[in-house]
Specification:
Radius of gyration of chain A: 17 Å
CATH superfamily of chain A: Aldolase class I
Number of strands of chain A: 14
Strand order of the largest sheet of chain A: 10-9-8-5-4-3-2-11
Number of domains of chain A: 1
Largest interface: A-C, 45 and 45 residues
Number of helices of chain A: 9
CATH topology of chain A: TIM Barrel
Helix content of chain A: 25-40%
Structural class of chain A: alpha/beta
CATH class of chain A: Alpha Beta
Oligomer: homotetramer
Chain lengths: 294, 294, 294, 294
């Protein structure tokens, strides 16, 4: 893909990733567990300018991520009742959930969008000073899963967000696209900085972009208080979209916990305004991201 | 150079390029011509957060760029009287000025910094839709000039800002550095988008960075209302410094003329704040940019 | 790593990968199954200029790859008796072998070198025209395995060949290296073109090189009759080493089966001669690849 | 441009640059000065596999490069009489020749191809250990010249070889192409390693390729006994064409002068054979390089 910065996209889509699979209330009390909390947090993000929320539903008692369809449905219903923000459901859910349980909510609930992981990899937490391994899992995303998840999404008019953690994942998508399982143009999330995936560098970002087909939409994402804003800024500068949220970063500034994902949404809006770009509404996002008609 | 975005520079230096050689009052009436106008504009930039002003002095009557040392001295004196902002003088001045007249003001006036152009090139204005040539000059910056200008700057404790318009210019600097004419670490201005030089792309920025030695300081610069803010944002995201000013861009937002370079300084400060970075004072800039002691 | 092509390495190491886990006699009858066949094939490669053989031992009856230590020992003994070529054992062996069985031969047999896979990934065979999946496995190489295998190799003075299939794998190695489990400088195999890993492009090769630490040794490898020679040539041009063999490519030219890996060794020697480089002897390879003293 | 190494060009064009502007008989006595010497040298190159000769005609007495049209005509006639090799004339000729005299031979003689320099730059000889400047010139190639030379070539059905020494030159060509002065697809010479232009690195080669339009033909070129063969090998591996000759390199191997450009042609043929590629005849080259019908 060639990016023509002389013809910038004025509008960009902010997606707020409210929870992820790992962030807990003891790290930041604003992480939602119950459907009501999800709805409230989504609403605040919507008010600040987010057009999409990315959701890993939680068990309302334990706060752990859950593949329970009733609970996921409750969360989605509560959010939809509260505001017209678009819904992007996770199909990663958490380590160890079998493939069928990962894709089932998509068929049943038919969200606007869903994450679609594009390759197997180590997914680890590592002490970056000592190299010591803290925890890890092998995150399984086979070609067979990529293809079958994509088919389910296409049939149910759910737009996949293609999660690429490395250049091989870009190629996995390209090869799988030959089967005709994706609606074009595709939407990519270029990820950086997960132990097991590609580290961040501007040259690595350039390779993601160089390897992407023309016409796609994209966002660059990373985790942590330093890399998340860097990725936001690069996305904004280069015509991409923006993802924020407590899933990736529990802070709003150095040493200060975010009161909610919505504070990061507001910061992204401010950031975008300094380069003349404004956040899309959910209806505008639907057009910008080429979401199928429902 | 490898950029470690996990250890970002909190502070960054804003340089305001007040005039350039080409921007005239009929394009934007805030372009300073007289010493008093330079001083007033520099002061406003200083108040908004700039630590450096880049100056092409003008003939106070005609507004044309001038190599007249008395006039340059008047401008520098007026600015210095008004506020403690650092002064970066141009050694490009304007097309057609001989080498001796380009470097002479550095010896006489001894500014804090000075631009040092690092390679010969076409310098043109081209209609980007039709390819039609509007105007051009061969901008002469021989190896001999690069080396001799660098010596004069070193002897006079003036920090060169190495203007690189292409990858060959990076190599010109590397080769010339073997003569020992530069104080280390060096300061680079990575330029994009001049017809005759490297166009902007994130891959090209990555190649500038890949080719730069460790430890340098840098800013990425372009011209025009679209590319200048893109370069500002990339610089801020990646730990660089920022250059704004009417030399590069006469606008503050789409269709709205900047009331002065200072409005762009203020915008850069706002941009930086969204990633937790703040502008350096002139004294802090002196340390950050490794300026020689005076 | 910066490559200084003005100071090229005159000598380079040819490693012949005799079998791999998948290539069978019905594809090319020269694939060795028995210890005697391995010894004969290794000898021919040695005579043509190879300094290292990479070995996946086979069950002499079925020809399938085996983790049976006695059989691996037999193969190694037979090769060592025949000629002084260095031995690089696989620790991948084949899909489904548990970690302990993968590393055990290294402890017992103590080859000169061993492959060390550096990240989990899909490892698939895909129809490149239709995108249809033919077969796949999740190739598990966790951080825990990377670290523990590296420790075993260090204790047994076996030089790891770090198999990197993507940029994330480079980072996995960097992070793990902080534990001090590798002897420096390290030796890398930059892989391209496996479905699941990074595809080949010259920009991707540039990113591998850009991300590698200074002072390492390396080889670029791919599979198939078109990509393997491309990688050989790029390695030779850029100062790297060379890997050939029936594991990666059963052909010697279009439509002509190689009579053995040795024919590809001879071709690599011819290729190197056209750029003034010659193959290292096993003793020279020991020095070039920084193998530990035994 | 994306290079698909899975669909390699079997044939490639070898161009032998017999003289250049600077190489003299006291460096290598095989450098031709007289028309007869040019014809003989061209014939030998043709016999070894070259399809094109690149010619800077010389004064037969002094051996200095000349813009004298009669002499250039004599050289071209002598070559054409001797063998059907294609003729690529220089429009650089030598430092200091005015634009009209540089393009005039193209109009009059109408060679098959001609070099077309695409940007102004320093062109220097520098001691690479000390950085000391030995000699330099400002090589003027304005946008106006690029455009008018291209028009003359188009009118006279002469195929331009676009000489790019840096990424800015790629952009100069792109901008000028909007005027419609080039026949498509274009032919590029990606140059490396001239003091004043882009240095060689595999990342820089990747940027040249990334910035080139789809469908072009190309060759990568450098000078000196180390870089010329590296560029030949990279060109062959990546599907490009090859340039050799005493203009760029007077040696055939370390410390051994080439007996003529033809020895380097033979070496390139050997190099290509190791990757299954063979040299094009002049008639095949006409097709491969999209030369206009005459």
């Amino acid at each position: 893909m060639e990016i023509d910065v002389l013809r910038p996209n004025k509008k960009y889509v902010i997606c707020a990733a409210l929870t992820g699979a790992a962030t807990m209330k003891d790290q930041n009390p604003a992480v939602p567990y119950t459907a009501e909390e999800f709805a409230e947090e989504a609403y605040r993000c919507y008010q600040e300018g987010a057009a999409v929320v990315h959701i890993h539903a939680r068990d309302p008692q334990t706060g752990l991520p859950t593949e329970n369809i009733d609970q996921i449905q409750r969360v989605v219903d509560a959010v939809r009742e509260r505001c017209p923000i678009l819904i992007n459901l996770s199909t990663a859910i958490r380590a160890g959930v079998p493939a069928e349980a990962r894709i089932k909510p998509i068929e049943v609930i038919k969200p606007d969008m869903a994450s679609l992981n594009t390759g197997s990899m180590n997914f680890a937490l590592i002490n970056r000073k000592t190299g010591e391994l803290i925890t890890e899992t092998v995150f399984e995303n086979t070609f067979a899963m990529l293809s079958s998840f994509a088919r389910v999404m296409k049939e149910n008019k759910v737009k996949p967000e293609l999660e690429v953690y490395d250049l091989g994942h870009m190629e996995n998508v390209r090869l799988t696209s030959l089967q005709g399982v994706f609606e074009e143009p595709r939407h990519y999330n270029f990820l950086f900085g997960i132990a097991g995936g590609m580290p961040f560098s501007v040259g690595n970002l350039a390779q993601y972009i160089a390897g992407a087909p023309d016409g796609i939409t994209w966002v660059a994402t990373s985790i942590g208080p330093k890399l998340q804003p860097v990725c936001n800024m690069l996305s904004l500068a280069l015509g991409g979209n923006v993802r924020v949220g407590l899933e990736d970063n529990i802070w709003i500034s150095e040493g200060v916990l975010a009161r909610g994902s919505y504070e990061q949404v507001a910061l992204a809006v401010k950031m975008g305004s300094t380069i003349g770009r404004g956040p899309a509404t959910p209806e505008e996002a639907r057009v910008l991201l080429n979401l199928p008609e429902r």
